[in-house]
Amino acid sequence: MINKLVKEIKEKNAPIVVGLDPQMSFIPAKILGNAYSEFGETLKGASEAIFEFNKEIIDNVYDLIPAVKPQIAMYEEFGVEGIEAFRRTCEYAKKKGLIVIGDIKRGDIGSTSKAYAIAHLGKTKVGNKEYSLFNEDFVTVNPYLGIDGIKPFLEVAQEEKKGIFILCKTSNPSSGEFQDRIIDGKPLYEIVGEKINEWGKDHMGDSYSYVGAVIGATYPKMAEELRKVMPKAYILVPGYGAQGGIAKDLKPFFNEDGLGAIVNSSRGIIAAYKQEKYEKFGAENFGEASRAAVEDMLRDIRSIF
Fold first, then answer.
1. Of the listed 105, 123, 161, 274, which one is catalytic?
2. Residues 201-217, buried b or exposed e (16+ Cβ, 10 A)?
């Protein structure tokens, strides 16, 4: 799958991923009204509104981008019905030819991690039958438990020819409380980067490993260090736009060939119509506003090469 991701990025000249992190305040009144009219102000109604919102955005941007990244917490908030919206969103995105990065940030003891890996990347067995539940192409993984938490994901990813992005240096302001601590003369994030590089060596695609890393756009100097530590790891870069990351700081995340990283924007794209820059589209054309925001992001990022 890492080969497909690289191919799509090259063909579309678009090293970006749209984060599908819906909040009810982002969803226009018309979509909410239609969903509530059919299902009432229920969890089912919320689920339907979320899916229709995501669907409209996907329909407007799928030809510009290689991938989407739904954040599962925004769906879990609505219980089983929300999870169904997550599943439907993943399924619809794949039908439109998009790669799906499930932002699930899982990581636990071996048997639990294996269950997570099977649910999101693999196939669940029921008697003599197998079922692909969410069928993401990549997922984000938390390395805090060490190889016990990572190995099950590696095994399932290898079997299914899929991939993972391991949290390394995250974009949130308090990430340094743990990630920047000096251990044996090195910051912890660098030690994690070394492990990502080590784990990825046995899991290579044509040019890049399918074991990638998550490094926040707000830490370009650290990205420059980590890019050297793990030259074959693809980097998923959150924090662009709303969290303060800007294009001119993104070059250290990439290799000299312009590959090696994929930059995420979530609310800056999916809630673009609420921004002054795109308010001319109005809530009724929120999908078109999202497309315009993607086009602007592409111009911004392409300008650094």
1. 105
2. eebebeebbbbbbbbbb
Residue-level pLDDT at 242: 62
What is the full DSSP assignment across 4-18?
HHHHHHHHHT--EEE
What is the reported pLDDT for 305? Answer: 81
Annotated active-site residue 232? The verdict is no
How is the chain split into domains, by residue range? 2-300
pTM above 0.90, yes or no: yes
Displacement of CA 1 from its chain's centroid (Å): 14
Which DSSP string corresponds to the chain?
A: -HHHHHHHHHHHT--EEEEE---GGGS-HHHHHHHHHHH-SSHHHHHHHHHHHHHHHHHHHTTT-SEEEEBTHHHHTTHHHHHHHHHHHHHHHHHTT-EEEEEEEE--SHHHHHHHHHHHTS-EEETTEEE-SS--SEEEE--TTTHHHHHHHHHHHHHHT-EEEEEEE-SSGGGHHHHT-EETTEEHHHHHHHHHHHHHTTSB-SSSEEEEEEE-TT-HHHHHHHHHH-TTEEEEE--BSTTSB-GGG-GGGS-TTS-SEEEEESHHHHTGGGSGGGGGG-GGGHHHHHHHHHHHHHHHHHTT-
- The residue-averaged pLDDT of 51-68 equals 98
Contact 121, 81 (CB under 8 A): no
- Topology at the third CATH level for domain 2-300: TIM Barrel (3.20.20)
Question: Measured between alpha carbons, how far is 266 from 71 in angstroms, rounded to an integer?
Answer: 9
CA 150 and chain centroid, separation = 18
pLDDT in tens, 99-141: 999 999 999 998 999 999 999 999 999 999 999 999 999 999 9
With 70 as the cut, is the pLDDT of residue 244 above it? no
